[in-house]
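Q: what does this look like with fe (ii) ion bound?
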Amino acid sequence: MARSNFCVCRFCIGQTRISASAQSHEPKKYTRPAGIGKAAVLVLPRRWSCRRASPPGACLINCTLREAVRILAPVPGAMYTIAHLSDLHIPPLPAMRPWHLASKRLLGLYSWHHKWKAEHRQEILDQLRAQLQVLRPDHICVTGDLTFTSHRKEVDQAFAWLESLSPPERISLVPGNHDAYVPGSLQYVRQRWARWMQDDDSGDQQFPYLHRRGPVDIIGLSSAIAVLTPRTVGRLGRQQLERLRRLIEERADEKRPRLLLLHHPPQDGATRWAKRLIDRRELQQLIEIQGFDLVLHGHLHKPVQASLAGPRGPTPVFGAASASARGQRYAPAHFHLFHVHRQGDTTNISVQHAHYNPAAGVFELQPEQAILDPVQG
Ligand SMILES: [Fe+2]
């Protein structure tokens, strides 16, 4: 790819052809105009000579600063922005030794090569990372299933991907059922990914953990357990639920918005019996009494919006689709951007969906929607 023929700025990443008259395409820092969100601090080419060689929208910046600001700038007044990704299933699967296959991994390997290899794509994850680095959310929540068979090399691969995404203090992570694919594998996952799953107060890698980020308290739960295929159920367990109850009770006087992360959907009827969260009723009771402002999950490979009973009204629940999917089997790749607006003592949370457009090869941000009544506190 000749540098003189293609825009190589971090937005186009080589996908947009530029005109032959372009004299210079060196990136430079653009100073944010007053009133524009910080995601509009863009590294822009000096000369705007891109023309759309791809379908409309394929060039994320649409070749003009105005369009770039319109598309990329966070919603005006957004105080804190949280991206939510899930079910990355980062390819490729490593070569496996015979002893690795003396387990459920044998079926996993077969399933990957015959069904999922074509669906979960590295180029989509590359695009996702590039766009998130442009959007620069304040924080990123990842709700599990970064691997497919939780092989150590997959776990290391996921570590490298997350490390390249954002500084560790800007990511909160919980594991999914694929990260506990065979008995014992979750132990290495918890050790390797500890930097994103450490409790702020104790510094320990434990569940639930608490991350205090900006105006939000993020609480991570692990529903990942190793089970016999084809079941992909999850369980939190009595001890984890009890620790969660204590954690919330100890902070009952704090009026910060609470965000809960787990891999399996906590609402009834979200999935079939073999994929359910076994002790979701116990979690639902806790949410109804203690109150959360937002619950995020994955596991379903499609965007989901639901609600659970809460002490101040419905608690919004959002499930993200797989972040790497071409959309041949389930929904195309997708992520959420949540905007936490704080005005005085009132907190509003709104959401933007970003859906992958396979034809254009980019994620397209949808308009902002309010998801909550204002929360006093
Ligand atoms: Fe899952």
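Confidence is low (pLDDT under 50) at residues 1-74. The chain has two domains: 1-77, 80-376.
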